[in-house]
Amino acid sequence: MRICENARYEKAQQTLNSVSADLMQHLDAAGKRKLRLAQSAWVQFRQANADFQAEVAGGGTIGPLISVTVMADMTEARARDLKKSLRE
Description:
By secondary structure, the protein is mostly helical. The protein has one domain (2-87): Substrate Binding Domain Of Dnak, Chain:A, Domain 2, CATH 1.20.1270. Helices cover 88% and strands 0% of the residues. It contains three helices and no strands.
């Protein structure tokens, strides 16, 4: 299960990177700076949330699976959000 979730997370991260790069091409200097700041804060939140969710579940051997699942879910959602910005 962890192998599958790790692969899903990697794919989601690649998609997010691609969407972010596309969005950067459509922003002015101020927009680019704001997106970089937002992404930096979001990455920190994503990690903190994944750590929290894994701990709430009791940690143990299931903890890493929960953590990567949360990371994949959040990364997919962030990519969808940024794609909306491209269309606006």
